[in-house]
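Hi there,

I know you've been waiting on this one. I reran it after we fixed the sequence typo, so this is the corrected version. Both the input and the resulting structure follow.
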Amino acid sequence: MTPQNAEVVVVGAGPVGLAVAVGLRLHGHDVVVVDRQAEGTNTSRACVIHPRTLEVLEELGVTKRLVDLGLELEAFSIRAGDQKLIPVGFKDLPTAYPFVTMIPQPVTEQVLLERLLELGGSVLRPYAATGLTQTAEGAVVTLDSGDEITARYVVAADGMHSTVRELAGLRMPGNTLELSLSLVDVRVAGGLPIDEVGLYFAPAGMLVVAPLPDGSFRLVAEVHDAPEHPDVAFAQGLLSDRGRRTSDPKVTEVVWGSRFRIHERVADKYRAGRVLLAGDAAHTHSPAGGQGMNLGLRDAVTLADAVSKALGGDESGLDSYATKSREEAVRVIGLAHRLTRLANVPRPVRPVRNAVLSLIGRTSKTQTGLAKQLAGFPER
């Protein structure tokens, strides 16, 4: 039965919505989470958690579980075939988590959901938010079932095409890049390193190769007119044309695949009265550097703390969240944009790009600076 009242309604039960709900439950608040899907996602899209995000998630009590289930990697490299242009190491970073954790999004969601259930929370499915009205004291969310839930605050964590954001009158302007990306999870017979994430700059275009905990590999490539359902031959072509030259990995299976275009957008404002935005409802950008879900999870923990204080009568944290989290999103979008543009310079310029990167990539300043940017603490 759908409750009629709650302190907070969270719309969207992806990683960000679940993290907000966990944070609020830890503060002792009554939270209702609704999601339009009948069950959680079973596709892996986001697959990396960075050091700063692991630090922030300690507050939710899920970091150890995520690290235990994930694959710890200390190295990231920008490459051109067998040549390492810029080696990036995380092991010397000033953090208790000097590594990236490779972990598929469904696993991250499951860990957060289990934590929410431990704290007495739940997710109502499948319900879509179709209406929203606000008063000075709160907001009313109307569901597609016709039910209404009255709450003091509403968190929109319902993705890039957020219904709640639109109902609240908030805009998310930006650009859609003329880049088609193919995302493929594959199994291979040898030939790929299992101890690093590789970003390959090849004449044919960009390729990311990242190992996953179950022994499969994530491939992400910029491809003109990417196929909706990539097959083994397509994935093999990506590795053969863009990857290492001295190894000979053979793709044996496509586990999952998808395609998408890159959007670079950030909401004008993260708050409209009693409505707060988080995650992809607030910002979306290139997957370069694996920053998207990480930024959203950090949003979630900060927002949960701010909403808890607001429920106690102090709303100053909401405006601080709206300002500072947006500033962080602009920084991250800039980083992802630069990496994407660098990977997709015109073909005649690519040899020059590689030569310049090889030169500057030898300096520890470049390597450490990029490591800190990717890890999530550029000023530390």
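Quick highlight: The chain has ten helices and 19 strands.

Best,
R. S.
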